[in-house]
Batch of 2 targets.
Target 1
Amino acid sequence: MKVLVVGGTGYIGKRIVKASLAQGHTTYVLLRPETAYDIDKLQMVLGFKEQGAILIEASFSDPASLLHAVKQVDVVICTMSGAHSQNLTLQLKLVDAIKEAGNVKRFLPSEFGMDPSRMGHALEPGRDTFDKKMIVRKAIEDAGIPFTYVSANCFGGFFVGNLSQMGPFIPSRDKVCLYGDGSVKAIFLDEEDVGTYTIKTIDDPRTLNKTLYLRPQQNIISQKELVGMWEKLIGKELEKSSITAEDFLASMKEKDYYSQVVVGHLYHIFFEGCLANFEIGEGGEEASTLYPEVQYTRMDEYLKRYV
Ligand code: NDP
C-alpha cells in the first residue's frame, strides 16, 4: 500500500512511520513548511527519508497541496496532536481533500486513545478532545470516506512509566497513590505495538469502517497490579496511600487547564473503568485477536527500562 502519515514527527506518529516502513509499505510523510524551522523535527523527517520514506510537502493552509498529497496514496493516517484540541478539527481540511481526491481506500484519523463515541458523558474540560474527535468522525462518515478508528487505550510512556500518577513520567521508588483501591482494570500499550497494530489494520477488510480496539489480554490490568510489577522489579514494596473519586475530582479546582484535562481522563479510566468496562460490539474488532502473530510487550517488560 501507499501510506501517507500526517503528523509523522509526533509522539505516536513517528512510531507509525517506523511500523509502516517495517511492514514494507511505500511510506509518505507529510512535511509542513513550519517543520523546516524546527531543527529536531526536520532532522527526524530527513531520517525517515534515509530509511526509505518519501517526503511530501503540504500545508494545512493550502488546500491544493493537501489534495495533491492525498492523491498520491491509498491510505491516510493522521496523528495530529490532541494536546491542543483545536488542532484536531484541522483534520476537517484533510477530510475535504480526501473527499475531493476520491482515491483513498482508508483514512485513520487522529484517535489512538479512549473511544470518543463512548465518552459523551465525559467531564469538562477533558471532554473537548472527545467532542472534537466526534466532529471529525461525523465529517468522515458524512463524506462516505472508508475509515478505521484505532482505540489504543493507555500509551505506556504516559501511564505506565509514572504508575499512572500525575507528575513526572518516571516511577517512584518510595510511594504511590492508588485511585480508590487501585483495582479498576485499565489497558496499557507499548507505543511500538500501537504502531504495529495500526499498520496491520490498514488493508484488512475485517476492520473497514470499524473501530480497532487494542486490548492485548495480558495488558488489561489494574493500577495495583501495575504497581505490583514495579515492586517486583525493584525488589521493594512502595508505601501506598489512596484517594477517593470525590477528593480526586475536587483537586481539579486548583489546577491549570491542561492538568484539569488530565484529572478528568484519569478519573474516567481509573475510577469509572471506561477502557475495559464494555464488550466490543458489532462496530469493533480487537487487535490482538485479529493479529495473534504480533508479540506484544507486557507491562512488566515495559517497566524494565526504568529500573
Ligand atoms: P503530538 O503532540 O506529538 O503531535 C503530533 C503532530 O501533530 C506533530 O508532530 C505535528 O506534526 C502535528 N501538529 C501539531 N500541531 C499542528 C498544527 N497546528 N498544524 C498541523 N499539524 C500540527 O501528538 P500525539 O502523538 O501526542 O497525539 C496523537 C494522537 O494520539 C491524538 O489524537 C491524541 O489524543 C492521542 N494520544 C493518546 C494517548 C494515549 O495514551 N492513548 C497519549 C497521547 C496522545 P508534523 O510537524 O509532523 O506535521
Target 2
Amino acid sequence: MKTIETVAEMMSLAKSWRREGKTVGLVPTMGYLHQGHLSLAAAARLDCDIVVMSIFVNPTQFGPNEDYEAYPRDLGHDQALAEGAGVDYLFAPQPADMYPKGYSTFVNVEGVTDYLCGAKRPGHFRGVATVVSKLFHIVQPEKAYFGQKDGQQVAVLRRMVRDLNMPVEIIARPIVREADGVALSSRNVYLTEEQRQQAVVLSQGLAKARELFVQGERNGNVLKKAVTDTIQTAPLANIDYVQLVDGDTMAPIQQITGTAMLAVAVYFGETRLIDNTLLEVESE
Ligand code: AMP
C-alpha cells in the first residue's frame, strides 16, 4: 500500500488508471479507522481493480464549536489497518492543499439537508458535499463507498451525484456494531466508561422500534416513543432528536408506506452519537 500526500500526485495517478481502463473504488473517511471503515474497504476490494481510501479530517464540515481540533488522528495506525483491509492507496492530503488560500467554491444540496443533522449542524453537509465532490474529481472513482451509519449523508450524496451528473455510483453499506449493539464510531473514544455503557440505549431503542415494525406497527409516533422511552432509561443521555423520515427525501413522515429511516442523535456530555435503522414496507 502506498500513501499519497498531495492532491497533484493523486490526480496524476487517477489519470493514469483511467487511461489503463482500471475500475477505481473510493472510500472517503476522516481516519482513526475502525471495522466500520474497513468493511467499506472490503466491499470496494471485491468490486474494483484499485481501492483508494482517503483520510482527511475535513475542516469545512465542522461547526465553529465542534470538535475539529480534538478529532482523533493516528495516521500510522490507520496505514496498518488500511493495508490489512486490502487498500491499495491511502490518500491523506493536508488541509492547505485541499483548501488553498482564496478557496471559495462550495456545494449546497438543498431540501434533503433541511432535516435531522442538517438542521442541527448548519453547514455540515455543505462541507461534506464539497469535500466529497473534490475527492470525486481528484480520484475519479467509478464507485464510492459510504456507511449507512451516516444515513442522511448517503441521501445527500445520492442527491448530489444525480443532480450534478457525477459519473460515480454511491454504494451504501450496513452499520457495523460492537457486540452490545453500539455503532462503531471514531467519536466513541470520547466516551467515559459509564457513558459508553449507557450508549447501548440508541441501538436498543431502535431495535425495539424495529420489533414493533416487524409486528406491523407503521405509526411514527408509536415507533419514536419506543426509541425515546428506551433512551430515557439512560441517566447520562440527552436526546438531540428522534425522527422518522422518508428514506430518500429525509423529510419527516407520520406513517411508513415505503422506505423510512428511523434516526436518532443523542448527547452523552459533549459527545454526540448518531444511529439509525431502515424500515421498509414492501410494495405490492
Ligand atoms: P467517518 O470517518 O466517520 O467520516 O466515516 C467514514 C465512512 O465510514 C462514512 O461513510 C461512514 O458512514 C462510515 N462508517 C462510520 N462508522 C461506521 C459503522 N459503524 N458502520 C459502517 N460504516 C461506518
